[in-house]
Amino acid sequence: MQVTDPLSPADLPVSASSPWMLAAIECAQKAAELGEVPVGAVVVKDGEIIGRGYNQPISRHDPTAHAEVMALRQAARLLGNYRLVGCELYVTLEPCAMCSGAIQHARLAKVVYGASDPKTGACGSVLDLFAHPQLNHHTTVERGVMADECVQLLKDFFARRRAEQKAAKAP
């Protein structure tokens, strides 16, 4: 296993508005409404969203129900193929190892993410599965698109959760 140093802020592009990342943020907000960690994803092919997903592992009792996997499943059903050649995934949080593996198996052309994940990110923060030359498919990665908005969504969610837990403990 190759471990890389976390990316420095200088390595990240300046936050720019993206209609696809805005759609992923909308999906993340749906997850937050359901009490799930607010991560959202969309799959885009030829300028059109063909798959949407948001975190649902708690409500579905399914450890694989991450936003990316849900979006990939929907896109694959729509295309009638598990290979999503020529597709791009926009996700609010850097994909984990499980999601990165699914992305590679689906043969996505590109992954664009907002917030880096210093605990489980597998696109460069903790490790970079897409950089291994031994793998037979290489998805390109764009980091930091609308990062501030994506980070704020997560911060707000966890602040609310901590406040709720504190209120529940109060006499």
What do you see in this structure?
This protein is an alpha/beta fold and 171 residues long. Helix content is 38%, strand content 17%. It is built from 5 helices and 5 strands, in the order αββααβαββα. The chain has helices at residues 19-33, 57-60, 67-79, 97-106, 147-169, and strands at residues 40-45, 48-54, 87-93, 110-115, 140-142. A 5-stranded mixed beta sheet has the order 2-1-3-4-5. α1 (19-33) runs parallel beside α5. The chain is globular and about 55 Å long. The N and C termini lie far apart (48 Å). Residues 1-15 have low confidence and may be disordered.
Quick tags:
171 residues, 38% helix, 5 helices, 5 strands
Report the mean per-residue pLDDT as an integer: 90
Terminal-residue CA separation: 48 Å
Counting DSSP H or I runs of 4 or more residues, the number of helices is 5
Summarize the helix and strand pattern as letters.
Answer: HEEHHEHEEH
Characterize the main sheet: 5 strands, mixed
How is the secondary structure organized here?
Layout: H1 19-33, E1 40-45, E2 48-54, H2 57-60, H3 67-79, E3 87-93, H4 97-106, E4 110-115, E5 140-142, H5 147-169
Parallel strand pairs: 3-4, 4-5
Antiparallel strand pairs: 1-2, 1-3
Gist?
It contains five helices and five strands; from the N terminus they run αββααβαββα.
